[in-house]
């Protein structure tokens, strides 16, 4: 009594075995879903820590500005007539006022060759420019050069003279100009090679209205004459650069510039508050939904917040006992929500009263903030170590997932084998039932 083979799950038993197996496997896969959720939370935490590290780096950058007195002790140079001069003051300038007269502007030599007939060509030879006691050669290797070819050769040689060609109604001229101003950059030109056309280029037209002799700048500062190869003078006033722009007179005032200090302090306050807000947002817990943000309960960020408060509230040893040992004495205070506020008026008053004292205070706190931040931002710091640990946990999840997937495959194969056996058994019983029914029916017919 053959029963045949079961080719499709559930045919023999009449059950929807495929759906039953799928539902059973869905229950089996619940641990995998939990692992995926855990992996997602780990990834979110890594991203959140990356954001915190970035904000902390911004605070560290701002603190480095505070700890560098050269960036705080700024000076401003103010000129009376900006058409005559411009000026800038360096970090170590000194306060002062000056009367300045521009007597002569520095100029670059500009020389014009004699007019060259149209179609003139120039043979092989060497153009030798004498500049400040040295010779700079330009070699024309072959003949048949146009005037523009000669200019191109001069420019390609990289010497201290540049060349252009200007063509008017009467013909073309080679225009030679020093790349730098001043008498040290004046030049003369001699030519060798025997080509008369080429030799003619060395004869400059001194009567040309646009021809310019090399000149140095001459200015007087408080009656003292200063001569320079360029229009920029750096040696006359210590750590102050004066640039002559036109002949005339002007005043120059050099004074402390406190705006740099206010800008630097505000940058630190803003960076501190941005970091604190970022940590608060990513550490929050929603009591209604009972869901926490990625860094809720995170020990590293809790430690960071504590260190931030301690650093801003602890007097650095180097300024202990000074008039401005506390940040609130220069206008930086904690608000009730833990953020920092800046009283610009109080800061500027402190700067006006004791500039050096304020710079020392900012430098001490800037160094302290930088040191605190380094413990978290360096490559083997607290944040990176935390991220490394989380990444290790994610790697473990991947291993667990692979192990579970192998287990699921075995479980599903076992379930399908069991239902296949059930199908076979039920099909066999159904066949036997049908046979017995037929036999009983035959006996009943015989008895009639």
From TrEMBL:
In this chain the Flagellar hook-associated protein 2 N-terminal domain maps to 13-109
Q: Which InterPro entries match?
A: FliD, FliD_C, FliD_N
Compartments reported by the entry: Secreted; Bacterial flagellum
Give residue ranges for domain Flagellar hook-associated protein 2 C-terminal. Answer: 214-430
- Domain of life, source organism: Bacteria
Keyword set includes Secreted: yes
GO CC annotation: what is one?
bacterial-type flagellum hook
Keywords in alphabetical order: Bacterial flagellum, Cell projection, Cilium, Coiled coil, Flagellum, Secreted
Q: A GO BP term, please?
A: cell adhesion
Residues that span the membrane, as ranges: none
Q: Which family does it belong to?
A: Belongs to the FliD family.
Query: What quaternary structure, including any partners, is listed in this protein's UniProt entry?
Result: Homopentamer.
> What does the function comment of this entry state?
Required for morphogenesis and for the elongation of the flagellar filament by facilitating polymerization of the flagellin monomers at the tip of growing filament. Forms a capping structure, which prevents flagellin subunits (transported through the central channel of the flagellum) from leaking out without polymerization at the distal end.
Identify this protein by name.
Answer: Flagellar hook-associated protein 2
Source organism per entry reads Denitromonas halophila
